[in-house]
Design goal:
The chain is of the alpha+beta class and about 160 residues long. The chain has six helices and four strands; from the N terminus they run H-H-H-H-E-H-E-E-H-E. It has two domains: about 40 residues, Winged helix-like DNA-binding domain superfamily/Winged helix DNA-binding domain (Arc Repressor Mutant, subunit A, Orthogonal Bundle), CATH 1.10.10; about 90 residues, Alpha-Beta Plaits.
Length: about 160
Amino acid sequence: MESLDSTDLALLDQLQQDAGLTNQELAARVHVSPPTCLRRVQRLVQAGFIERRVAILDRDKLVEVLGHGLDAIVEVTLDRQDNASMEAFEARVAADEAVQQCYRVSPGPDFVLVIRAPDMPGYLALAQRLFTQDANVRNVKAYFAVRRAKFDPRVPLPRPARA
């Protein structure tokens, strides 16, 4: 699959909003038959356009059970920026469960991480295992979120032109 038509884009858009839709509900929303819908979604999965389907949890509801937790955006600068050093650091942080997102960036720091820790002691343990023990980490700058104004994991897709 090399290109996406308007039906493919509509399917992807609907699935980004609610991946729990039944095939019949999804087909009705994009105005195709259920067999066509199923075949197209399977093709989108096989082609890699749909990486995985997940549930997005309501953090406000989980506070009662898990506590508030701590969100941090962390800038990391390495001493050595050769490809092997960058890939080694990236693989190590990407494998850590507390690291929700990892970006290699330029200019500025080498990496920006989005981290979720249960509390400050949890963050300090993470900092010790990911940053302090790594001799190649030169600088770490952490920003702690006090409020999340927006969270939207959807990829913006072009809207089909109306006739």
